[in-house]
Amino acid sequence: MKLNHEKSKEMFCCALKNVKKVYGDNDFYDFTDFDTYVAEFITGTAISSSNYNVIKELAEC
After folding, report:
1. For residues 38 and 40, what is the distance between their CA atoms, to the nearest angstrom?
2. What pLDDT, in 10s, does the model give residues 32-57?
3. Where are the beta strands (DSSP E) in 1-61?
4. Which of 27, 26, 21 is closest to 39 using CA atoms?
5. pTM for this one?
6. 47 secondary structure, DSSP code
7. Are the CB atoms for 52 and 19 separated by under 8 Å?
8. How many domains does the chain have?
């Protein structure tokens, strides 16, 4: 079980390294834009700051 937990943390940290844009509270974020949708939900290269911080904290990156 511990091995799976460590592997999960490793994968989350790797995914966070893939992020190219972290949307802050004051950033304009058009969630209806196709490119924004793909970046957030398909490729994982964009993420909100709140989600980024929670994942980073939980994965201990």
Report:
1. 5
2. 899 989 998 999 999 989 989 999 99
3. 21-23, 46-48
4. 21
5. 0.74
6. E
7. yes
8. 1
CA angle 25, 34, 39 (to 5 degrees): 60
For tokens 């196709």, the residue is 34
First and final C-alpha spacing in the chain: 20
Mean pLDDT value of segment 18-44: 89
CB 11 within 8 A of CB 60: no
Look at the block and give the residue holding tokens 């966070």: 16
Q: What's the DSSP call for residue 31?
A: T
Give CA–CA dist 56/8, Å, rounded. Answer: 12
Domain range holding 44?
2-59
